[in-house]
Amino acid sequence: MSDTDPTTDPQPETGELEKARAEAEKWKALSRKNEEQARANADKAKRFDEIEEASKTEQEKLLARAEAAEKKLAERDAKDAAKSLATEIADAKGVPAAALRGATREELEAHADELLAFLPKPPSAPSADGQGEGDPIGDGDMSADDIVNAATSR
């Protein structure tokens, strides 16, 4: 047998074994390094998800706040429109706007008509020489000269 025969030479076998052990150690070290990097990446991903969730919650808070403001504005607009409608009908019918009840034009007008039925009619006063809404001064009543004479004759 020769010195170079691998089957009989114990030295080359030991050298190859050492190379294989070194190679295995190198790959174990790389594997551990990759595992550490994967753990670090997982921690970073978890922190990123938490921050994203907190940010999402903040966005949801802002969205809810905007929706509440829009709802409040719509309610105020509806209230202003109802008040304007009540004032318009009150002026047209001659009743106080604060006394009117109803949500629609028809309801407000019907309530104004009901109120008018209960309100006393303005008294008709006699008119002076046909001016005004009342009845003219009739015959047999005192004339303007008679009233002046009666007032100054004391």
Notes on the protein architecture:
The protein has 154 residues and is mostly helical. It has three helices and no strands. It has helices at 10-93, 105-118, 144-152. The radius of gyration is 52 Å and the shape is rod-shaped.
Condensed summary:
Helix content is 69%, strand content 0%. It has 3 helices and no strands.
Computed structural class? mainly alpha
Shape: rod-shaped
- Please state roughly what percent of the residues sit in beta strands, choosing from under 5%, 5-15%, 15-25%, 25-35%, 35-45% or over 45%: under 5%
Q: Could you tell me how far the N terminus lies from the C terminus, measured between alpha carbons in angstroms? A: 173 Å
Largest sheet: none
List the helices and strands and how they pair.
Blueprint: H1 10-93, H2 105-118, H3 144-152
List keywords for this structure.
single chain; 154 residues; mainly alpha
